Give the backbone structure.
Amino acid sequence: MLNILLLNMQEGAELLTDEESVEKTLSIIELISSGGVAGQVIIAILFLLLIVASYIYFERLFAIKAASKIDANFMNQIKDHVSNGKIDSAQMLCAQVNSPVSRLIGKGISRIGKPLADINTAIENAGRLEIYGLEKNVSVLATISGAAPMIGFLGTVVGMILAIFELANAGGTIEMDVLASGLYTAMTTTVAGLIVGIIGYIAYNHLVVRTDKVVYQMEANSLEFLDHLNEPT
């Protein structure tokens, strides 16, 4: 009789343990759906921001990567054409190469015959336009990296307000089921906002570094071209 009682208690404990383990298992979809309408709206906004950030990052990354590609022999060919007075051939070579460096050099070649200061000014103005093109929409990434955590914290505040409101209307009895929706909203939106913000921040800084490399390449080739024009003949 005692053995049967102990066996039943053991089976009951195992069933209770199994039920607790099942209750503690929660998928991401269930976690989001448990956050209520306010949490779902904020999660949807953050998801859209993540899609926008991902699109801008990869679009700019491929554009910057393409802009950084240039033939190592390009400047040598340009200097040979300019030294031999083949200005048209130099301009044609610049037109064939689709890169910021070739467009800057092409702008400088079109000003050959004018004072060196004018050529330098023309190259600088063209360089500003090229940098503006390289940095297109990159500022949006910076905005997303800063706005996403704040949107997540907004969800936290909304969730806590809902939890306090439910607690105030509970009539003095505290039940976790009553507080669950508000707490889920508070926690899930905070985590989602931080994730989107971190991704946006990393993507923005990576693009800035890649853009700076292209800018340095443009400056180096422009100075090489101006030094060649300034060489005594």
